[in-house]
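call fold target=DUF4089 domain-containing protein
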Amino acid sequence: MDDTAITDAELDGLAALAGLTLAPDCREGVRLHLATARRMLTLLAPPGSGADELALAPVFDPAPAGDGGDAG
């Protein structure tokens, strides 16, 4: 299991991707949540596959336009 510490640069990069700014007093809490999520992804990975593949998988697959969905 990957217990590599999440660096300040990684935190800043993720925050920038999300359009957020992390307050100094929140950094350790965010770091803890990200480490927990990384461990959960590792545990959910199918045997024989890399956890990286699961981490890069889309969270959901939106329905194609015009499928009738909930509109109406």
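return ok
Residues 27-44 form the longest helix (18 residues). The CA atoms of residues 10 and 63 lie 32 Å apart.
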